[in-house]
Amino acid sequence: MSGQPQPTVGLFVTCLVDAIRPQIGFAAIQLLEEAGCRVEVPEAQTCCGQPAFNSGDDRDTARLARQTIAAFEGFDHVVLPSGSCAATMVHGWPELLAGDPDWAARAKAFAAKTHEITSFLVDVLGYTPSGRRLAASATYHDSCSGLRELGVAAQPRALLARVEGLEMRGLPGNDVCCGFGGTFCVKYSDISNAIVTEKAEAIEGTGADLLLAGDLGCLMNMAGKLHRRGARTRCFHAVEVLAGRADGPAIGEEG
Amino acid sequence: MNVALPPFKERAKAALADRRLKLAIDRTTGTAEAKRAAAVAAFPEFDAARARGRAIKDHVIANLGHYLEMFERNATASGAHVHWAVDDAEARAIVTRLCLDAKAKVVTRSKSMLGEEIGLPHALADAGIERVETDLAEHIIQLAGETPSHIIWPAMHRTREQVAELFTASHRPPPEADDPATMVQSARRVLREKFLGADVGISGANFLVADTGATCTVTNEGNAELTTTPPRVHIVTAGIEKIVPSTAHAMALLRILVRSATGGELTQYTTFHCGPKRPGDADGPEEMHIVLVDNGRTKMLAGEFREMLRCIRCGACMNHCVVYRQIGGHAYGGTYPGPMGSVLTPVLDGLAAARDLPNACTMNGRCAEVCPVGIPIPTLLRAWRRRSWRERLEPGALRAGIGLWAQVAHRPALYRLASRIGVRALRAFGRDGWIGSLPLAGGWTAYRDLPRPSGRTFMEQYRDQQRGRK
């Protein structure tokens, strides 16, 4: 990036990473800085609003959207360690604010500079990690929103392929929903359980040491089910592996 | 319809407990998914065909009145009688009257979801008319006294073992063996007698062709031809959105319909029915009646569910739906199950009765991905959720919870404080790294453990780090 001004990135940590697994946020900062960005985490962020958005509460979602758009307007890029939250901002917010003359254009501009982290690293920055080693086998679950709404599929795999010693194993039904669905998993918990049980069986069937994915919500769902079933699979967000931070406790392990 | 059904969650729970149902669903949807994928892979123009299909449907929907009138003119010119039904009750009344006018004792029917939508089976029974379902799967569910659980494979909820039991109990003489071929032969023997003795044959239509006035049926069993040709009277019931400008347009849609439904290139039988028997024809009905049914469709035309009128009823959305594949079709409680049904059932039965359906979806988007006419099903489901929220149909506890959460989420400083307290409180419930049981989160912890938060939020740690850097 010599000669060019350093791109500024506003990191939207996401509510789940903030509360449950902060190290995903720090791994994201590390990768973005290694890729040549100046990273800041604006204080005015809370949540992308999906609990309200998916419940049909557009008013509260729009309020959150306006507040967040304003907080990130000074950055070149907005990056999230979640395809699901990123998709809400990229597709949901502009749709929601389309009829608002003061905000429609701002929401569109915000959407245009918002990215899920692995796709940002690969597609925008052309970054490849180097010197990363992890002697383990892993399988990867494609979270639905990132996959279908943002086209995140090849990017995390391209990055993970650069981690020496990491053997990637295909997951049958890798593009089938894990049954999380945000509030769906508690509103319709019986159905969600049936779905995640099949997902856990598929993951266990790969015999991989690790399950990786790009969304903490889905990861918590799958990790929680795997643990309840007594499976040995350890679960990490992909950026933890890419940042060389998968040598510590996995999701649900305490160091 | 379905007034006596238990609530959706109970229906779903019962379905989830039924292992034979799950086996039956997995067999059929698994095969359908694989065959569709192979058919799409072997058809390089699939995306182009899909775009064309979508454009045809959009054009027709935008000019519905024009094409329906053209259809009526041409169908009438061919000698058919066209009837218009504003809703299900009127459609039932028209069909029943036509059957009674024909002094029908026995009516054969080839599979039609529109017939199910307007409640035709019950209406015929109430009029004292014997109804014979001629599609193999419809024959199975008629024997079992059930309704279709899938729009392409109405009996897909039954394993072949269950079908063998049913045929053995119902067919006289019973089938000699329980392999599929022998069972098909047995059904064929039972149905053949009925085909020739029926007074009226009732079919649906996959397409209404405006410029010829023909109706088109597609089947793999040939039962539609035997239903519509020998009886004196042929009645077609069809939704008004089935209209296409010409035969070429019907063929363009067939290319994506059949591949999306069964993975075949074309159905075994694709028949265009154009008017009754003419002088010199070897066979055919003496009278042909076409009942065009609105039943909520023109209302959709003017509103946010307009795109749903593109649906060509292929069933791909349900075959690829994680929820459908767990609970099957009956749990949905409407005529149309799965993702497309979750959009349509609130139109047909009212949102208050069906509010669970648009909510019982993970929004994973696979249905829209496979839809051959590009219907943005998750967006339409979200529109129902929005309406349900606005009309205060969502449970009070949820509304209160979201309201409280939103109050906090709108105030970042308060949110920081609440999450600091929240993660510490959460830690108190866990041992090791996991929380196995948590008040107010029983939906989660009944089935899975919750990872225990690390103890300090990201924002707390980040702020400390920033201070350290300065």
Can you describe what's shown?
The complex is a heterodimer of chains A (255) and B (470). By secondary structure, chain A is α/β, with parallel strands linked by helices. Chain A folds into 2 domains: 8-123, no CATH class; 131-242, Rossmann fold (3-Layer(aba) Sandwich), CATH 3.40.50. Helix content of chain A is 47%, strand content 14%. Chain A has helices at residues 15-19, 23-34, 50-53, 58-71, 83-96, 104-112, 117-124, 144-150, 154-160, 184-187, 189-206, 216-228, 238-242; strands at 8-11, 38-40, 77-80, 114-116, 133-140, 164-169, 210-213, 234-237. Chain A has a 4-stranded parallel beta sheet with strand order 2-1-3-4, with helices on both faces. A 4-stranded parallel beta sheet of chain A has the order 6-5-7-8. The radius of gyration of chain A is 18 Å and the shape is globular. By secondary structure, chain B is of the alpha/beta class. Helix content of chain B is 52%, strand content 11%. Chain B has helices at residues 8-16, 19-41, 46-62, 64-77, 88-101, 113-117, 120-126, 136-144, 160-170, 180-197, 223-228, 247-261, 297-301, 316-319, 324-327, 338-349, 351-354, 356-359, 366-370, 377-390, 396-409, 412-427, 442-445, 458-469; strands spanning 81-85, 106-109, 130-133, 200-203, 207-209, 214-219, 233-239, 243-244, 269-273, 287-293, 434-435, 450-451. A 6-stranded parallel beta sheet of chain B has the order 1-10-7-4-2-3, with helices on both faces. In chain B, helix 3 (46-62) crosses helix 12 and helix 9 (160-170) crosses helix 10 (180-197). Chain B is elongated and about 95 Å long. Chain B starts with 7 loop residues before the first helix and ends with a helix. Classes of the chains: A alpha/beta (255), B alpha/beta (470). At the A-B interface, helix 1, helix 2, helix 3, helix 4 and helix 8 of A face helix 1, helix 19, helix 20, helix 21 and helix 22 of B.
